[in-house]
Design goal:
258 residues; Rossmann fold; 7 strands; alpha/beta; single chain
Amino acid sequence: MNHTPASASHTALVTGGAGGIGASICRYLADAGHRVAVADLDAAAAARVAASLPGDGHLGLAIDVSDEVSVQRAFDHVTEAAGRPEVLVAGAGVLFFKPDGQRPLITEISLADWQRTVTINQTGCFLTCREFARRLPEGRSFGRVVTISSVTAQLGGYRSNAAYIASKAAVIGFTKALARELALQGVTVNSVAPGLIDAPMLRQSLSQERDSEAAAAIPLGRIGLPEDVADAVAYLVSEGASYQTGTTIDVNGGYRMQ
């Protein structure tokens, strides 16, 4: 998939936009000519990413996707500064490990860690997507929603904990539900499920010295790059993906084939 310039410029809101994958998504959307609102819990990091993007009209802002009011205020801010978001990439997420970098077993997961993971990954996706949907104009209009799931949601996971797996599986189901509800308005809703990607989340449990070991299980023979995920997102946002909705694009180098 190649991220070619879209036929029109749109305002895109990317949550988790200051992270490794999120920042790449923001760059690809900016390259395609969109105005990008980089939204992240770390407002300073979001501002730095926004300032680095090519083109004009980009902005960085703080968002706590687990907080309903914060989500509403973020949409208000973006709408006032750059226009109503017509593109939403729900990418904010969290994954925790034990101090030794190993995944905790279900018997070791505290209720607090479970609830925090579900609240950010699952409820956060719901709150941002719901706000996007509530602000759509009547009738048909251009709209793109891309959620970020994970290969672990489809495999049951080897490196991730059960809270993360469950929350990302819920994202895929929610994506399908939203796709059906928004289809008559001309809005497409799809998900991208990354595999092992060279980003900060992966590096919590995998050192670069072990990359070759991990890559041995991947048919294409390498760890993925944030740009690989961003390329898939850029396609789903493009005019060329207007007949694709309710789907999940796997970006995993063949780690999981269906």
